[in-house]
Amino acid sequence: MKLTNPESIQDSEKEFIDTINAELDWDVIEQMLLDKHNFAVQDDIEYKDGNLIVYNNEIAYKFDFQIKVPLSVIFNRGGECLSMSTTREEEVLKNNEDVEVQNSSTTQTLSDEPGKNKVEAMAVEIADLISEINNKA
What we know:
- Helix content is 42%, strand content 25%.
- It is an alpha+beta fold and 137 residues long.
């Protein structure tokens, strides 16, 4: 025996989720992305879906968004990845003391210091983050 119309409940839930979404503090969210994942949002964030869920035995709200992030990749002439960053290329070049930019815009060299393992780990982490973002879409 139904006590109310299911469409009425679903419409009210959607309106509730939309109200919460409208109140999100995007400055804080963007700062968290920068602090935790070291990337800044490049374009508008696209809202995909929102829902009421149970998370770690408590009621929570889950919002899914699609975002674009800048990605700079530096690789050598042998095709090996030397650096991958979610910051703008100019910032990477400016902040990396191992980078030497030649007169030609196509020739850039990086020192082959022991930091290569760190770069590879960063590349794997960034690839995992991008995969995680794409899987949530």
